[in-house]
Fold this sequence. Notes:
Low-confidence stretches: 1-17
Helix content: 25-40%
Number of helices: 5
Amino acid sequence: xxxPERLGADCDTRFPGRFDVGRSEALLRRxxxxxxxxxxxxxxxxxxxxxxxxxxxxxxxxxxxxxGFWAILCLSFGLSLANASLSGDGGPETRSWxxxxxxxxxxxxxxxxxxxxxxxxxxxxxxxxxxxxxxQHPWIIFKRSGETAFTRYDVVGWRGGDVVQRNYALxxxxxxxxxxxxxxxHRGDGVDAMIDAIEAAIxxxxxxxxxxxxxxxxxxxxxxxxxxxxxxxKLDLPANAIxxxxxxxxxxxxxxxxxxxxxxxLLGLLGASVGVQxxxxxxxxxxxxxxxxxxxxxxxxxxxxxxxxxxxxxxxP
Length: 317
């Protein structure tokens, strides 16, 4: 009679892969060792160490992003402050708004001399006082061919009732001491039809009796509404035009303010825009950051923009 050891060996030879006493015992020993307390502690120490390393790495990335965010904010605010100091605009009130200059800036063409030419222009200037460090006030002027005077439209919140004002001030007048900047200048063929579309957009403005300086609807919301309805205007409001991204919660997605792209925005406090005129822009609490690819430049809060001139000009004889 064969010994038990030999019997096991013969079974291994005759039925390979079915019965391996030695291998089974080794597997059992390894399984038991894996459940020993010191083995579990060693595995837990390894996993917890990896977890702590991942957390530290993530925290470093968050700190870098936060530092970069605040650095950009400080740089943009410093540039806006320096610009206001050099130009005398947007700083703390040195005079009453009642006595602030509002004369013509000499930018708009003489409508009498250009009587035969249809013209559309959009201007933007720093808001009055310290708010000019943060925000802009835009307006639109136009005249049809054959007319000898401009018509101006902008939103003025303190007028009460209907906030959409017609001919509230001179076509290119200083905005309570702030020098206006030309954003759009269209003249000639096709502009009469553009004016018809602009007037229709003004009539359809949904917040004609509502005004909130932050986050909107305000004067920038008004011009953005016109820009969406009249893409041919090619309006590119600056990044510091707070309120241009205002959209109600019921309508968070749609065309960007220029009408040339798409936008997702929650009350103008959080969102993003991508468009031909705007480039790529994100909005955090009304502070806009982005890159303009049409006329290369950086879109920043406070200062608005750093880069090439992006004024839209089209003159057709």
